[in-house]
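Exam revision sheet. Question 4 asks you to relate a sequence to its structure. Input first:
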Amino acid sequence: MALPFSGRVRVTVRTAPSTSTRTLSLMSGEASSALRGPRRGARGRAGRDRVAPSPIGGIVLLEGYRVLDLTDHRGEVAAWLLGRLGADVVKVEPPGGTSARRAEPVVAEAPPGFESLQFASYNDNKRSIALDLAASPADRATFLDLVAGAEVMFDSGPPGFAAMAGLTEGELVGANPELVHVLVTPFGSDGPRAEQACSELTLAALGGPMSLQGIRERAPLQVSVPQVWRHTGAEAAVAAMVGLARARCTGEAQWVDVSAQSVMTWTMLNAMEAHEVQGFDFERAGATLSLAVTIPLKRAAKDGFVMAAPIGINAGPLVPWLVEEGIVDRSWAEEDWATYDHRLLSGEPTAMSYDDLRLALDELCSRYTRHELLVGGTRYGATLAPVNSVADLLVFEHLDVRGFWASTELAQAPAAVRRVGGPLVVGGWRLDQATSAPAVDEHGDELRASMGRVRRTSGPAGRDGGLPLAGVRVADFSWIGVGPITTKALADHGATVVRVESEGRLDTVRAQAPFKDGQFGLNRSNFYGSFNTSKLSITLDLTNEAGLGVARRLVRWADIVMDSFRPGTMAKLGLSHDDIAADNPSVITATTSLLGGGGPFSSLAGYGFHASAIAGFTDLVGWPDLGPDGPWMAYTDTIAPRFLTTALLAALDARRRTGQGCHIEGAQLEMGLQFLAPEVLEQQVSGSTATKNGNRDRHLAPQGAYPCAGEDEWCTLSIVDDACWATLCRVLGDPEWARDEALATAAGRLARHDEVDAHLARWTARRAAEEVERTLVAAGIPAGRVQRSRDLAVDPQYVHRGFYHRLEHGECGALPYAGHQYRIRGYAHGPRAAAPMLGEHTYQVMSELLGMTDEEIAAVAEEDALR
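Answer key, structure tokens:
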């Protein structure tokens, strides 16, 4: 399909894995190269130099930093992300290599050490050294030398690779008094669950998102490919950057632990505190949007499904198409679609009922393919998002135009394959791969030869022990999820974040549940509240020249300017990076949108559930015999902030050292795809397409969510090996059915999974979920009840960690807010203040922060610009 764009040349792109070609309208070579960054091909295994990251605005964000990666598959994403930002990452492995080299998905025919496509995906830009820390004094000394020259060390635990080798905190601090040590854990480094056996499935259950996914008629669901540790690793990168900032404040080592359970809770979005706020929990209902009402999102197309919400803001632009198709008459054009949703919810009259709108949209979608609906919706200004599979992603032309894919050679593949490109474009360069994942000890000799150098320092430290981001100023023009969650992370640690809002263009989550005590109000939504703690709120009408003048003052004041508008909007307002940098040359600007700028579908405005469908996640939650259900709500809104926050903290650090700012662009689709990188490789290497598979695993059996006593109560379990199966049989009382020798092996249990599930369900159904979990966990079997927000509020692990914070809100009184997904020892961090009321700080911001006089403020108010 030819997609003409002015100022761009037509080129032919060969798409993988198909051998056919398609003609796309691409950007000029210069612009395309700028998005990609320098293309360094996969280099040979022998003689690889240390990583040389892409230049970013003349600098590399984490240039000069060294990161030690001691993690297995549970934490490798953390060091990988810092490596993409320019750090020198050293993978410290035991002799024979880390167990992550065997993590699924694997290619059995690959050379030893290179079987894992997950390892290939999250270990590029790293150097490897193999050390026997427990048995070799020389290796132990080498390791402590590495610690002396590092800023950050990631480990997986508890207790962790270093601790298992007998290395003490005293030895680590003795080698490096300012080391930031980040331990990636299932539940935290201490507390009643700290040592509890777990799996991806049980963590998704105990963290809460499973309670929201799937349909009521069947068991709650997980995402069918590994996600827990990818989320947790990315959040560990955020924690490391906060730890670095605090180390500068205190001049002391930082001990950080990240809880995968808490990370999973944050994927619940508006459901994290729902029960305490509104008096009831949200419930799973398939592919729906649970807001003030439940809205079905999934619509059948000719060749699959699209995600399209039957709401006024989506329907209004489609009316001309609906009329053209003869689906509705011209009277639909007379409806005020901009106010339709509000009138419908408040009981005011509307010419068209909700059912009229839903049925019209269903009929339109049934006439076209997914791609035709995407193209047609784009033409009319509406978002009809295709539910893509992983295979579909490889031929999605928008990613070609954006220069997203990169060709790479893998030990696991006979020919070059497409690899997921970098998550962000920073300073015009994509954060991409410079070197492929290393062989075990590939760089051991060169690293040993470089020992004995003077430890690098990160520059002068404040040593005041205060909030690590105190003094950082942020102008936040973003809305809904990704941007506000990103800036919340800065505000909670001391940054002064001014949230720019407007009564004329409300942040839609202010009008969405959960509302305090179930009563609607623009200041009563904890959907908004959860993402906007510790911020100030100013209301400005940016369509009014006087309001825009205040915005210009605000961006001159700011160190960071964040927006999440449709690409090009800030430029139309005269607030592009170049516009702002003309008066504020060291400013850091960040923009995030659904699909990023510069592609055929860049104009699409949408929500995280649209991006989740396009990115392939919607197709990964559901049952094999039913249509896709998708993850809860706006799933990519839970992924993207982890990348943006890490990058902003790295940019702040680089600016502190160099005085230079930069521009960061994050397409939510591209950030989301980072969590499917192994599956994209698997699609090409083996031809296997990842898809929805209930709660089952390819190799573990049995695994699932099993019904328990009570209404809609469930407990999950995973049998990780044959010994674990034997333990389960003993717990069950050695029943006759379980004595079948065919069930003694994973292959036998996989072949008869349905039968085994039926027996287990009869056992669990007679017991409370808490009893099932307690019994299995006591035997060392990974198990976890499916928890809702009401359960999380009293989870003993969360009580121990002080996860929930109750803060006084200006209108609602005490409200619960989910805390951070990590803890830093000796630092009582978390939300510092409740979310602001709409425009609560308008006068304060203008007078105290921007230095405007009362007369100047009154003049702006007289122009009706402060609304």
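Marking note for examiners. The radius of gyration is 26 Å.
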